[in-house]
Amino acid sequence: MNNNFNISEVLDYLPKHIKTMVIRLSKESLQKIEEIRLRLAKPLCATGCCSEIFIGADGEAEPSGVNAYIINEDDLRYSMQLVCNFSMYSVEEELKNGFVTVNGGHRVGICGRAVIENGKVKTLKDISYMNFRVAKQIIGASDKVIGYIIRSPDSIYNTLIISPPQCGKTTLLRDVIRKLSSGGEEKLFRGMKVSLIDERSEVAACSLGIPRNEVGMRTDVLDGCPKAEGIIMMIRSMSPEIIATDEIGRLEDANAITDAVNAGVKVITTIHGSSIEDFLNKQSLNRIHKEIFERYVVLSRKNGAGTLETVLDGKFNILFERI
Amino acid sequence: MDVNLIFKIAAIGIVVAVLNRVLNQSGREEMAMMTTLAGVVVVLMMIINLISNLFDSVRTMFHL
Amino acid sequence: MLLKGIGGLLVISASGILGILHSNKLSLRYKELVNLRRVMQMLETEVTYGATPLPVALYSVSKKTEGPVSRFLANVSEHLSKRSFYTLKEAWNDSAERLLMESSLIKADIEFIKSFGNILGCSDREDQKKHFQLFYIQLRHQEDSAMEEVKRSAEMYRSLGFLLGMAVFVVLA
């Protein structure tokens, strides 16, 4: 799947007139777009890896934003209708977290006025900001790392991928899962049964039950389920050899991962963080200890998204470091 | 004197009577009244010529 | 003479049939309102329990039901899937106009249905549920008034048709 295809999936969630404007950009510009932002009463903006363009009403890329198209209330309203498929109630859970995942695994960040009930966010209203993040699947993203993760033809090391936001950890995780599930020539790896708990529908991007992204031959996907419960469900029902999930952060997630490892299942997961020290300082995951994981992979954006910074083993010895 | 005329008037009378009953029963009393009136007017129109002849004959008979 | 008879028969039966059709429209309206309730209850289940997005929910409800209202839902679902309109409200209103032409519902019923399109899909499940309940209460009023109309006028229109036909025949022939 090339990038142009992904972009058009995201554009379907923009009002027609805005979609027409964006499409008029040059092909190279379109290829580079990673985010499209709608800000109320501000210029229409698209950002890429190291670039930012404001888009004018006739599809001109305006570097300064002076003649760019200004977003109005109706644009946001129409866009919200498209994103939630004309049904606010169907995304109310996701709205509480501030983003909605749409077809193709793309994440749409939503910002406005929070409605609080009992001290918790009940929903968002007066939507004034939307951020469309284009999801990219890159086959081969894990080529450099996979060697460190595979232990033997039928086993792997429990791996934690640490990365700041927007550095490609989901893309990397996806490709790792794909490789582990399909098997390959590295160390004559035979391919293992993987159970993926895709809480935000971003890794496999399931649509009507079918993964839109390549996640491998032996992968079972539990779509949209909270991680802690999902992990337990999968262990009981799908007898996985590997449990894979994205963005662990809460105590329940950590406990579920520990349970999985204790049950003899291998785990691969990701976490937000900029370095290994960052991870070690995370209070809520204190339990997850340093005894569970046998490989740590740290990512950054220094050479573009998905830059491999370091790979460490369970005792924090450096196995690889980017020069 | 057309016998048909008598039949016609009789028929109209019956129709008006039934219409009256149906409309009254469904509560449309104003409509019922209107149909009765309409019936009378129609009949009058049908025999207006005869009435005119009647008055002419009476006038000639009594040299008025 | 024969021609007169045939002419008269034609006039009386034409008028009579018109009367019957009009009378049927009234009782059909009532039936369609009852059907509307059933259809909306199914939609409510899809929305409040299944949290199914509207294009899918409307389509699946329309598959399980019949009648003009069912076609109306299928219509809205199609508009949404094709993104022919920017908002649900516009798609809903457009299909409602078509419903007015294709069914025995009257303008007041259609306006009432249109007003529901203003809030459908615009809030969370609890809120939607409340709006559905409100809809049913108002629908009950429409149903009651439709039933009253039927009781009052259905029989009347039937007789009226034939009688007027006869009156015309008698006057003209």
Describe this protein with a few key phrases:
heterotrimer; A: about 325 residues; alpha/beta; Rossmann fold; eight-stranded mixed beta sheet; seven-stranded antiparallel beta sheet; 11 helices; 19 strands; about 30% helix; B: about 60 residues; mainly alpha; 2 helices
Tell me the helix content of chain C: over 70%
Distance between the termini of chain A: 31 Å
> Which CATH C-level class of the largest domain in chain A is it?
Alpha Beta
Number of domain units of chain C: 1
- SSE run of chain C: HHHHHH
Largest sheet of chain C: none
- What Rg of chain A, in angstroms, do the CA atoms define? 20 Å
Largest sheet of chain A: 8 strands, mixed
Shape of chain C: elongated
Numbering strands along the chain, what is their spatial order in the largest sheet of chain A?
14-11-15-16-10-17-18-19
Helix content of chain A: 25-40%
Using the 3D structure, state the CATH architecture of chain C. Answer: Up-down Bundle
Q: Structural class of the helices, strands and pairings of chain C?
A: mainly alpha
Say what oligomer this is.
heterotrimer
Q: Count of DSSP E strands of chain A?
A: 19
What do these coordinates show?
The complex is a heterotrimer of chains A (323), B (64) and C (173). Chain A is α/β, with parallel strands linked by helices. Chain A folds into two domains: 131 residues, Beta-Lactamase (2-Layer Sandwich); 176 residues, Rossmann fold (3-Layer(aba) Sandwich), CATH 3.40.50.300. Chain A contains eleven helices and 19 strands. An eight-stranded mixed β-sheet of chain A has the order 14-11-15-16-10-17-18-19, with helices on both faces. Chain A has a seven-stranded antiparallel β-sheet with strand order 4-3-2-1-7-6-5. In chain A, helix 8 packs parallel to helix 9. Chain A is globular. By secondary structure, chain B is an all-alpha fold. Chain B has one domain. In chain B, 88% of the residues lie in helices and 0% in strands. Chain B is built from two helices and no strands. In chain B, helix 1 runs antiparallel to helix 2. The radius of gyration of chain B is 16 Å and the shape is elongated. The mean pLDDT of chain B is 88. In chain C, helix 4 packs antiparallel against helix 5. In chain C, 86% of the residues lie in helices and 0% in strands. The mean pLDDT of chain C is 92. Chain C contains six helices and no strands. By secondary structure, chain C is mainly alpha-helical. Chain C has one domain: Receptor-associated Protein, CATH 1.20.81.
